[in-house]
Write a structure and sequence with these properties.
By secondary structure, the chain is an alpha+beta fold. Helices cover 48% and strands 11% of the residues. It is built from 15 helices and 10 strands.
């Protein structure tokens, strides 16, 4: 055990390159080597604290101890999050903005979303039946883009769908890259923000009338705590915070296809149509495969936790992937086993593929329900509603590249609707 008040420390001037080289395993590797769920390092030239596990997640999501404003690196703001988005807010301002997001996550709203998703899968299966081969990751991104726009009330011309899909994907594929790939993400965000901003102004001018319960309508007319409409730029960022994450579900769906292929015995259980087992399978995909490696915050004020001192302003990283593979929480964490969720009653701090804590009060991803419902629909098509072949290909995936996807992007062929 570490000495009281002595946090394990990684020696050296800066370890940003190590983080890039080790990706999802960076924090977990050091948790193992230090035999500690917390350690100090230096990232981007500054002192940083890395931690993982259930107790660490509980303290990380304590809004009295940590804040999100100015925590994310600028390269992530310029690509993934956008400026002044909900992820960077704290206190009552965050709670009020989060309520705007949660207002479209009603049972009726989610039912409409699943309906749109099914329709897009139906059309895709017909289309794929005419193709020599299907690169699933790219095709599913387009399914998700169409679904997201329809659900959000965002009108998009048919000849613009592929371009918009690529732009939204570039936002979440580029934050951890350097050079041209990173600038691709920045330029994509600038284009989409400009287009969505023009759309918002047309809504406010009465030229475009999206359905009332859609994100475009709700967000365009949302008022802040002072009773003012959000500025156009911020509203555009928040609309994109609906579209971009739904397209990013393509990553999970790609891993779902991989799991269906790699675990045929589990696939057989899905053929019974047992909805509970489908939910368990989806949750295990989210736990087992890499998605987000970590989330960041800044220490709000000095405090002591488990005899360790946290100083105001210190960058802190919570290990999402490592917490989802923590042997203190999960039996045989490196085995794919949907049955582990049969009687699971875990806390919102032990299973955190998209962050932890409370949906309404905290920073847990508002779109987690969306992710689960969309994945269940997609799983049903991959396991039960179509036949296809998986030719020889490189289905391995990197634990360094962020986000990680199978190298071949999962190619399938001879797609036929199952009768």
């Amino acid at each position: 055990m570490p000495n009281t008040n002595q946090m394990p420390r990684e020696e050296g001037i800066d370890h940003s390159l190590s983080l890039m080289r080790e990706g999802y395993m960076y924090i977990l590797n050091r948790r193992h080597s230090f035999n500690s769920d917390i350690f100090e390092t230096r990232l981007l030239g500054k002192k940083a604290i890395c931690m993982g596990g259930k107790e660490a997640a509980e303290v990380f999501y304590d809004t009295e101890k940590f804040k999100r404003k100015d925590a994310a690196p600028n390269r992530a703001v310029q690509t993934l999050f956008g400026k002044n988005g909900v992820q960077a807010l704290d206190g009552q301002t965050h709670k009020h903005r989060k309520e705007m997001f949660m207002s479209i996550m009603s049972p009726d709203g989610l039912e409409k979303l699943t309906g749109f998703t099914k329709n897009q899968w139906e059309m895709a299966v017909d289309k794929w039946g005419q193709m020599d081969k299907v690169v699933l990751y790219e095709e599913v991104q387009e399914i998700m883009c169409r679904t997201a726009c329809q659900w959000a009330g965002v009108p998009v011309q048919e000849d613009e769908v592929k371009k918009l899909t690529k732009d939204l994907a570039a936002m979440f594929e580029s934050p951890a890259t350097v050079g041209p790939a990173h600038w691709l993400g920045r330029n994509a965000r600038n284009r989409v923000e400009k287009w969505i901003g023009e759309l918002i102004n047309e809504v406010r001018d009465g030229k475009v009338n999206p359905p009332e319960n859609t994100a475009l309508h709700r967000f365009a007319w949302h008022r802040d705590l002072e009773g003012n409409l959000l500025d156009t730029e911020t509203t555009a960022v928040e609309i994109i915070n609906i579209l971009r994450p739904i397209v990013a579900i393509a990553i999970f769906i790609n891993f779902t296809a991989l799991a269906v292929h790699h675990y045929p015995k589990e696939r057989e259980k899905l053929e019974t149509g047992n909805e509970k087992y489908a939910q368990m399978f989806v949750q295990e995909v989210r736990r087992f495969y890499p998605f987000f490696p970590f989330v960041v915050a800044l220490v709000k004020k000095d405090f002591t936790w488990n005899s360790y001192k946290f100083e105001e302003g210190t960058l802190t990283l919570l290990d999402l992937y490592g917490t989802n593979h923590d042997p203190e929480i999960w039996d045989n964490p490196d085995e794919f086993s949907p049955d582990r969720f049969a009687e699971w009653e875990g806390s919102p701090f032990s299973f955190i593929p998209q962050g932890g804590g409370d949906y309404f009060m905290g920073h847990r991803c508002a779109g987690e329900w969306v992710t689960i419902e969309v994945m269940k629909v997609s799983l049903d098509y991959l396991a039960n509603r179509m036949n296809y072949e998986v030719p020889d290909q490189d289905l391995s995936f990197s634990m360094v590249s962020i986000p990680s996807i199978p190298h071949s992007k999962v190619v399938i062929k001879n797609v036929k609707r199952r009768i």
